[in-house]
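Give me the fold.
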Amino acid sequence: MAVDEAKKPKIFYGWYIVLASVLSNALLSGIVWGGFGAFIIPIETTFGWSRSAISGAMALRQLESGILAPFVGWVVDKFGGRLVIIGGAITTGLGLMALGWFSVGIISFYFFFIIVAIGTSGVSHAVTWPVIISRWFDRKKGLAVGIAVTGPTIGTTLIILNTALEDRFGWRSVLGVYGIVVILFVGLMGVIVRDRPEELGLNPDGDISTHEQLGSNSLQLDSVNSKGLTFQETIRTSSFWLLAIYLGGMFISSSGFLTHEHVYFVDDLKFNARDAAVMVTLTFAFSAIGRVGSGWLMDHMDYRVVMAAASLLMSFSFLYAQIFEITNSWLALPFILGFGISFGSNIPMRAVLASMIFGNRALGSVIGILNGAIVGAGLIGPLMLGIIYDWKGSYSIGIVMMLILCFSLSLVPMLMKSRQSLSAVQFGE
């Protein structure tokens, strides 16, 4: 039966959920992730701690997010992403309030930071938001998820505001008030979320259900839940392990370089600290192109080509840095443009490809496992580059190793099945 166009909303509700993801993760990035750097020196001054002591808490947050990702994915599948987002917002907010107002020593600081990490694991764009959005979109899944994960590219600019607020009110007050803001704002974003379009009588991408379909809404939800592979079936496929290898390898390279990017420009390329900081900022800005662009491309062409193109672009970016003598920002621009786009391209891939290849039946659990593996692999890159720099006094060998790794990863997608083959075999289409 034809869709009742008269009842079709001008703006599909799924796009409001995409906007909620962008705004929520922009705020969290500005406070907990990139923007937290504004509070490091003031905290050092307050307690007299070393830089590594504070950085250790931030590294622990990254490690904890990887460990918790599989559990978060399972909870999203079992109880729904809406509850996870609201609960994550409350937990993050309470953790920030405690971190600012009740930290009296290194033990309490780490304890409260762990609470923040637990909260952000549930409300970040790593698992929960991509799962929800993947269920709201089909034809435009890649574009929607790509836009939804651009929040951190906006939020990193809040470090300027954080610095000004800290100068005026002090880091304790700023973090405490930020905790209240997170509970109210991100919690509100969670309230407007619906886990599936069928809950509002809609279909993915914006089609309105007919009267008869609305009458059998429970059957529709059962259909959505059962489409695709179970978690056990997913991890027995070669596609799952090939995808994990590809994403993990790419994250080794991207996390390694991003961790050392500022000092690479200062020590190896002899940039001053200010210009190096600009390069880091531009890298994240350019990553927005990759996040949205790769998502759109996966909607319109063979996903294997998009994967190969992203890894080759990162490889060629590292090659550019090795071949050309980069002495100023203009010469560095092609390098950070290529790296930023390729790095950004991989952010939406884990959710889009997991949904595209394995379906939505156990999507939360699948993305959670993938994210945990990716974060685990991402710990290798920074450590590897640090060891190489201590050994040789330069990052050059490490850059070459990442170049070779990314080039090799471009072959992995060729071992994976086409989308048509996956649909025919796995979904019975």
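The chain is about 75% helix and 0% strand.
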